[in-house]
Amino acid sequence: MKSFENFEYFTPTKVIFGKNAEQEIGTLIKTFGAKKVLIHYGGGSVTKSGLLDRVCASLTEAGIAYITLGGVVPNPRLSKVHEGINLCRREQADFILAVGGGSVIDSAKAIGYGVANDGDVWDFYEKKRTASACLPIGAILTIAAAGSEMSNSSVITNENGWLKRGYSNNLSRCKFAIMNPELTYTLPDYQTQSGCVDIMMHTLERYLNQSGNMEMTDGISETLLRTVMKNAKILKTDPNNYEARAEVMWAGSLSHNGLTGCGTDGGDWASHQLEHELGGMFDVAHGAGLAAVWGSWARYVFHDRIDRFAKLAANVLMLTPTDDPTQNALAGIEAMEAYFHSVGMPTSIHDLGIDLSEEQIMTLADKCSFGCTRTIGIVRKLDTEDIANIYRMAK
Fold this sequence. Notes:
Keywords: Oxidoreductase. GO terms for molecular function: alcohol dehydrogenase (NADP+) activity; butanol dehydrogenase (NAD+) activity; metal ion binding; methylglyoxal reductase (NADPH) (acetol producing) activity. This is Iron-containing alcohol dehydrogenase. It holds the Pfam family ADH_Fe_C. This protein has about 400 residues and is an alpha/beta fold. It folds into 2 domains: about 15-185, Rossmann fold; about 185-395, Dehydroquinate synthase-like - alpha domain (Dehydroquinate synthase-like, alpha domain, Up-down Bundle), CATH 1.20.1090. It is about 50% helix and about 10% strand. The chain has helices at about 25-30, 45-50, 50-60, 80-90, 100-115, 120-125, 190-205, 215-235, 240-255, 270-280, 285-300, 305-315, 325-340, 360-370, 385-395; strands at about 15, 35-40, 65-70, 95-100, 135-140, 155-160, 165-170, 175-180. A 6-stranded parallel β-sheet has the order 1-8-5-4-2-3, sandwiched between helices. A two-stranded antiparallel sheet has the order 6-7. The radius of gyration is 20 Å and the shape is globular. The chain starts with 13 loop residues before the first strand and ends with a helix. The model has no long low-confidence stretch (mean pLDDT about 95).
């Protein structure tokens, strides 16, 4: 087992947090010398709420020109990225403002790479080459989930083959992130809870690792998980609870800005890889897809890190330990699944409304292993056969 490891912690994003934080967006962008901004957003909620109009008015008042591009969907599409790249180049936009959640921010990052580099932006997500620049990006967050507003990562789905791939590069880190918890009040409960699971999973992926115990990092992770679980339940019955929305929103950023991975080997991330293929094939909500596969993954690998799973059971799920580490670990997995059910999240692929065929399982496993050319995971390295077995367990 590895000991506490050397690490670098880089978090350059300026955070403006609180009520009405979005009102000064024009003045803020002006400090970055922007001349023309692409406002990138998703569906009708940004328009219906009046947020888009307020953003446009603030930019106009600051004397900053803008263009708009909406239509980003969950599991953001490469075709929309290409549309944004062409629009930015044609209009000579020099700054991208993402107004939305993780899908919009991820799409904005991909557009930023595409504008600032020659060639096909998909090459970066296929790991064929490395980006050398990125258009500057800012974010007004409307969904607490992905943590993309403070991370260096983005995930894009290519409709050609329905491949969902991620790319991480510090060049795409947002210059600023505006976080007003009130902007999340109108989210449907399913989307809120799916976002909370996404936040939890970003921490669980790092917590379940092959490193030694890191008292400070572990403590931060455990507190974050307990806080999200507590406040997600509050939001089930009180969706306009500002304090609960604020706790969840800030947890979303801290869960994916690298803080909960300091001193570790980086974490497992197999559950994310498994879900990416489900999201690519069936377009499921990311957090819900993670909840659907996590328990099966955990049961498949827990013997390789019983102590960490037992620690999760005791320190996060608050279960009383027994003398049997296996029993402790399994009780923790069962308790986590029970929690997912309690907030309306799935714990199987069937719960997502999907009945996988054996052919689909093998296709998913092949895509996840990049055609049997890689393994996934750290707790246990999983090959194509292992991946297929977990999909079968999760079915």
